[in-house]
Write a structure and sequence with these properties.
189 residues; single chain; mainly alpha; elongated; two-stranded antiparallel ribbon
Length: 189
């Protein structure tokens, strides 16, 4: 079914028109299509920026706990909304990261420094929830003798003195240690 938009005078499908409530009871489709209404609202906001901001400030003063109360009263709707928004939020975060990776890393470092206890608690909670997965992951690293496993093993000997860090170990030393571990495993068999 189609309808003619009053603004652009085009015949468009009815799903391009918002359904609104008249007097709180009767449902009615708007006379202008969604794209025309969006353009109108954007132009109105640009022309009346201060007035719009003032109206929002006044509303927030009259209803200080509206959002908090709504979230408490509608946990299911909030959960559905967050789950639906999660992929878009991830994509947005990914885009922001690749615009300026160094700034993103700095924000993470600052957050971790300011919220050490929270980060520590969340990491502990995640580790407890994913213990079998972590165990399988680390066992596979051990059996495969991955570079990271060997580097950490070499650096563990120097942890107390902090003389050798895993990222500073040359690849040749990693290969020699891998060969040594393989020989020890063969001798044990």
């Amino acid at each position: 079914m189609n309808k003619v938009c009053l603004a652009c005078k085009q015949e468009l499908p009815t799903d391009l028109f918002r359904v609104i409530m008249l007097k709180g009871v009767q449902k009615h489709q708007q006379a202008t299509c969604k794209p025309c209404m969006a353009a109108y609202q954007k132009a109105y906001y640009e022309a009346n920026k201060e007035r719009c901001k003032e109206l929002v400030r006044e509303w927030n003063k009259r209803n200080p706990n509206y959002h908090t109360n709504w979230q408490k009263a509608n946990p299911d709707k909030l959960k559905r909304h967050r789950e639906a928004a999660r992929p878009r939020a991830r994509e947005h975060m990914r885009e922001q990261y690749w615009k300026d990776p160094e700034a993103a890393r700095l924000r993470v470092r600052q957050y971790k420094a300011a919220n050490k206890e929270t980060v520590k608690a969340k990491k502990k909670e995640w580790n407890n929830a994913n213990r079998p997965h972590l165990r399988a992951y680390y066992n596979s690293k051990t059996e495969q003798l991955s570079d990271s496993y060997i580097r950490n093993k070499l650096a563990a000997n120097h942890k107390r003195e902090r003389t050798l860090r895993s990222e500073n170990i040359p690849q040749e030393l990693v290969e020699l240690k891998r060969f040594q571990i393989l020989l020890q495993r063969e001798l044990k068999k």
